[in-house]
Amino acid sequence: MFLKTSVWAFSLMLATSCNNAPQSAGSASYKTTTVEYGNRTLSQDYTATISGRQSVEIRPQISGTITKVCIAEGSKVKKGQVLFIIDQVPYQAALQTAIANVKSAEASVATARMTADSKAELFKENVVSDFDLQMARNALLEAEAALAQAKANEVNARNNLSYTEIKSPVDGVASMLPYRVGALVSPSIATPLTTVSDDHEVYAYFSMTENQVLSLIGKSGTLEKALQEMPEVELRLNNGQIYAHKGKIDAISGTIEQGTGAIVVRATFPNQEQMLRNGSSGEIIYPHKLENKIVIPQEATFEIQDKVFVYRVVDGKATSAQVQVYPVSDGKEYVVENGLNKGDIIIAEGAGLVREGTPVESVK
After folding, report:
1. pTM greater than the 0.70 cutoff
2. What is the residue-averaged pLDDT of the chain?
């Protein structure tokens, strides 16, 4: 019994001493990866405001009382369709007066012409003096000028009467109607009668930084070529839904906004279903298509003073290397533009915990 106990105690001491013995230093095991080329499409979001292709504020060109509203709020209207009618009575009376003035002026011209012709005949027979003849001719010129003025007043009166029917200048959709029958309106009203938006196509306006625009132009060579090579963009609506149709960037502002340094960019979207409305907002999703680029996991990098580094495995040891990454990422990977070559072996995980020169045992 005593012998068995002693053997058991000796075995326990031996096991304990083995566990406490110092282990030999060796290579640490890290997951590594071999750098390869790949294709990626990265997206960048920009806040956008949406407006119809044409958004026209409808205002009266004359003063008067609205006698009829010919449309409903939010209804579709056609170019040339009557939207409002302003009291026509005073303008019809003004037109009749102008027409009468024209007829009177025409009669005066006819009389002055007969007088001038008669004076000319009498002057040939030395019955009247040159002074009388010239006075008759001047009277004719004055009558003709009065007739021209009367005709101009008639044209103006006709225009004013036509302005009593306020028509839509474009096809589109009317906004709300702040004025009703009986409201007194004039060309100086602060709020328009309505706004007609032609939204068969809509414009989404968003801003890029000057550096981003310069980069796009630099890759293409000219602004015109850059616009032609722009990829189609998507629109994320306020409810998070992706709009069914893609848009095309077709305009870049020629000026830079003071203070922000931003440049306004326009993308055009079709809107046959009338889903997009003038004044709404959303987000432009701009794709960056990158082909034959080195792609590495972000876990393989660490940052020092806004600079990105990786650990390459060189001769079995960790060797830090600064890399230049594409400014857009998906939050999981980096596209490396400079600093690595195809076939390089890098530490794929936990790079921030590695130290320079650490022996590395690769684990796939």
Report:
1. no
2. 88
